[in-house]
């Protein structure tokens, strides 16, 4: 086994403690891929005896697992989503915890098989994890596969076109692995003993198709019909009602309807959200502290499972309107300085007005993005703010990423004073983050990482960050002078603590 597939300490501890506490469970599906799941590369699907749910929850809580909420299209009764964090590797461990055997089509899962206790009792340990015998796992997998076989798949199989269709490649590989470890006779006998009332014919038929011709559309459609008939006593709601729910979910996910039914904000919450709700976390620091690197790392780390969004609150990514004003102000400032003979003092006149509009545009952009961040956080998204304007961070007497008009321009004009008032109001009313992560770096380190920046400017910025008071917002200070891996590990640990 390669290091990439070595079991994580967190997964090993989980299953060891379940044995210690006599928690009845089994890993009930995709057991051929169990080594990958133990390494934190994919989900662990656990079926837990309902009477042991409290004991299981206690073990998970002791190990730092946290509950998360799935998108409504992936949320089903009797199923919990837990995520754990393995500090040694930085990987997340995703537990799908079932207290009932729920299965069926995508978006619906309309069938519940009341055989949980029998499946758990028949399971046996393998590499420290309890798994069902291949006869029972292949039976349940066959029904799951047939329920997910769509008419579109059948049409592709009949025409012999497309890479998809038939039995999906992962399911086919899993079926063949399980089939190699058993026989049709053993499967039929095991189903009669442990899954009474569940017809073996669809399972045995799919075993033949998977071995002989996995794109035999006529055979698959016939087996699907028999599977649906056999599962009718186990439906959670009438088949017609489930079909309508499935079709609505499918239609909403397809182009062009998804363009109408899903705004950008709704697409952002399609993954999991913390049970405690979303939050805004601002990452601040001097140039060279690694703010953007940290933000990108957290996105790479979490976005495969969680709803994560990034809002940039600096000034180097202006909106279109602000970008136009910024270019015009740059030209006007250069002309104004030349005509004034480079006299020092606040800028006024037309050049001053354009500069005021440019600063106002920056404030408007930041406020709009901060409001969007707060709206996303209120819907369960982890929003990372790359920079945040703080009144307590002063560089040469000016707030870093804060108001500029009144302090840098000639406010003799009533128009510019009104613009200054509006700018300050944008910053004053800006939604505040729930937590600050402050990356503190020394001037020497900042200069070595950003040699293109003036050393005195970097020194002023690092000094301003160092003087930030904890009373302004809840915050975590991280020493960013260290190696990048160490810094990112601390950032990960902080984010995980806040989730």
Nearest-angstrom radius of gyration?
29 Å
Write down the overall geometry: elongated
Helix content bin: 40-55%
Low-confidence stretches: 263-268
Mean pLDDT: 88
**How many beta-strand runs?**
17
Strand order of the largest sheet: 1-2-5-4-3-10
DSSP strand (E) fraction?
Answer: 5-15%
How far apart lie the N and C ends? Answer: 33 Å
Class by helix and strand content? alpha/beta
Q: Major sheet, described briefly?
A: 6 strands, mixed
Summarize the structure.
The chain is an alpha/beta fold and 499 residues long. It contains 21 helices and 17 strands. The strands form 5 sheets. The chain has a 6-stranded mixed sheet, with helices on both faces.
């Amino acid at each position: 086994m390669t290091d990439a597939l070595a079991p994580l300490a967190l997964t090993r501890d989980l299953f060891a403690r379940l044995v210690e506490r006599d928690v009845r469970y089994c890993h009930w599906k995709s057991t051929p891929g169990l080594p990958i799941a133990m390494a934190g590369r994919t989900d662990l699907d656990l079926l837990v005896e309902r009477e042991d749910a409290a004991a299981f929850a206690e073990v998970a809580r002791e190990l730092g697992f946290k509950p998360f909420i799935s998108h409504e299209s992936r949320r089903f009764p009797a199923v919990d989503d837990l995520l754990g964090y393995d500090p040694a590797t930085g990987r997340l461990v995703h537990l799908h915890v079932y207290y009932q055997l729920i299965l069926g089509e995508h978006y619906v899962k309309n069938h519940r098989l009341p055989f949980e206790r029998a499946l758990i009792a028949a399971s046996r340990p393998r590499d420290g994890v309890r798994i069902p015998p291949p006869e029972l796992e292949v039976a349940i997998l066959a029904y799951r596969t047939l329920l997910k076989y769509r008419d579109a798949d059948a049409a592709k199989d009949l025409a012999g076109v497309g890479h998809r269709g038939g039995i999906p490649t992962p399911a086919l590989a899993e079926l063949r692995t399980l089939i190699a470890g058993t026989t049709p006779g053993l499967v039929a006998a095991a189903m009669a003993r442990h899954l009474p009332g569940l017809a073996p014919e669809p399972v045995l038929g799919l075993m033949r198709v998977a071995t002989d011709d996995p794109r035999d559309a006529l055979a698959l459609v016939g087996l699907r019909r028999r599977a649906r008939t056999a599962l009718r006593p186990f439906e959670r709601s009438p088949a017609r009602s489930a079909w309508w729910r499935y079709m609505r979910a499918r239609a909403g996910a397809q182009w062009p309807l998804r363009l109408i039914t899903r705004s950008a904000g709704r697409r952002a919450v399609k993954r999991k959200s913390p049970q405690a709700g979303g939050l805004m976390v601002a990452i601040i620091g001097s140039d060279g502290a690694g703010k953007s690197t940290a933000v990108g790392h957290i996105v790479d780390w979490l976005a495969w499972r969680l709803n994560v969004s990034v809002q940039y609150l600096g000034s180097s990514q202006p909106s279109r309107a602000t970008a136009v004003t910024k270019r015009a102000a740059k030209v006007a400032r250069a002309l104004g300085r030349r005509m004034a003979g480079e006299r020092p003092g606040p800028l006024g006149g037309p050049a001053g007005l354009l500069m005021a509009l440019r600063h106002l545009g920056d404030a408007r952009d930041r406020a709009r993005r901060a409001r969007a961040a707060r709206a996303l956080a209120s819907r369960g998204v982890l929003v990372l703010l790359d920079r945040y304007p703080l009144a307590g961070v002063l560089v040469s007497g000016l707030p870093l990423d804060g108001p500029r008009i009144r302090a840098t321009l000639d406010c003799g004009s009533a128009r510019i004073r009104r613009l200054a008032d509006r700018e300050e109001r944008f910053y004053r009313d800006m939604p505040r983050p729930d937590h600050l992560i402050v990356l503190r770096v020394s001037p020497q380190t900042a200069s070595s990482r950003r040699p293109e920046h003036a050393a005195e400017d970097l020194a002023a910025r690092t000094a301003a960050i160092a003087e930030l008071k904890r009373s302004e917002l809840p915050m975590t200070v991280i020493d960013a002078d260290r190696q990048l891996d160490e810094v990112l590990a601390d950032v990960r640990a902080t984010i995980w603590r806040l989730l």
